[in-house]
Amino acid sequence: MKRLLCLVLPPLLVAIIATVALARGVTAHPDEPLWIASAYYFDRLVHGDVSHPDWQLLPARETPPVGKYLFGAALWLQGRPIRSIERLASWYEGWRAVPGAFGTGREAAEREAVVHRLPADVRTAVSQGLTCRLASASCCRRV
Q: What letters, b where the CB count within 10 A reaches 16 and e where it falls short, cover 44-70?
């Protein structure tokens, strides 16, 4: 009986907790677009493109790589890989206007280098708070 309880109780508790959490709804976190866009590095890895210059950019080492690869694998398995750095660059561009968000010195310069991977029309749209779809920007058609 004790063994049966040890086998049944943990999954039952997980199911109850998950049901309660899902019933309350899942809220969006402000960094989710960053993690999804960072999945770009999984695509580089899958294609064996480990010498690509984008590996030297700040986003390649700014957040833990495991998350990038997990998001990348999930998107890749669904047939929705992130094949361009432009979504990641859009994330950085969105933070440019926030005082102190780019940091200073080398850190700021590296973030700036990522932003400059975006076409000018996309940078303008993002800086004005427009979404990529509203701007009909070139990155939306390619990504």
A: bbeeeeeeeebeebbbbeeeeeeebbe
